[in-house]
Amino acid sequence: MVKITAKIDGMMCGMCEAHMNDAVRAAFDVKSVKSSHKKGETVIVAENEIPEDALKAAVEKTGYKLISATSEPYKKKGLFSF
């Protein structure tokens, strides 16, 4: 699994966060997506890597701008993980 942190420019409110989450879910097969307009970022957890150019196209289709995207391996933190 991969955790992708995308810096997004243009989100101003909670509705912007919802638009971004919906756009990412519609474009890619993701486990979870969470946006924050205060931090200016969207955090995506997916099974496979998402190409940055595809992510940029999905973000810019909604009217926002992708500034950067970084990815790192994701380890699930469950109730019984040690």
Structure description:
Helices cover 29% and strands 37% of the residues. The chain has two helices and four strands, in the order βαββαβ. It has a four-stranded antiparallel beta sheet. Strand 2 and strand 3 (41-46) form a beta hairpin. Helix 1 (14-27) crosses helix 2. The two termini are 18 Å apart. The mean pLDDT is 92.
SSE class: alpha+beta
What is the number of E strands?
A: 4
Q: How do the strands of the widest beta sheet line up side by side?
A: 2-3-1-4
Distance between the termini: 18 Å
In this structure, how is the largest beta sheet organized? 4 strands, antiparallel
| Beta-strand content bin | 35-45%
Q: Tell me the series of helices and strands, N- to C-terminal.
A: EHEEHE
User: If helices are DSSP runs of H or I spanning 4 or more residues, what is the number of helices?
Assistant: 2
Shape: globular
- What is the typical, i.e. mean, pLDDT? 92
List low-confidence stretches: none
Task: Indicate the radius of gyration in whole angstroms.
Answer: 13 Å
- The proportion of residues forming helix, as a percent range, comes to 25-40%
Question: What is the strand and helix layout of this fold?
Answer:
Layout: E1 2-9, H1 14-27, E2 30-36, E3 41-46, H2 52-61, E4 65-73
Antiparallel strand pairs: 1-3, 1-4, 2-3
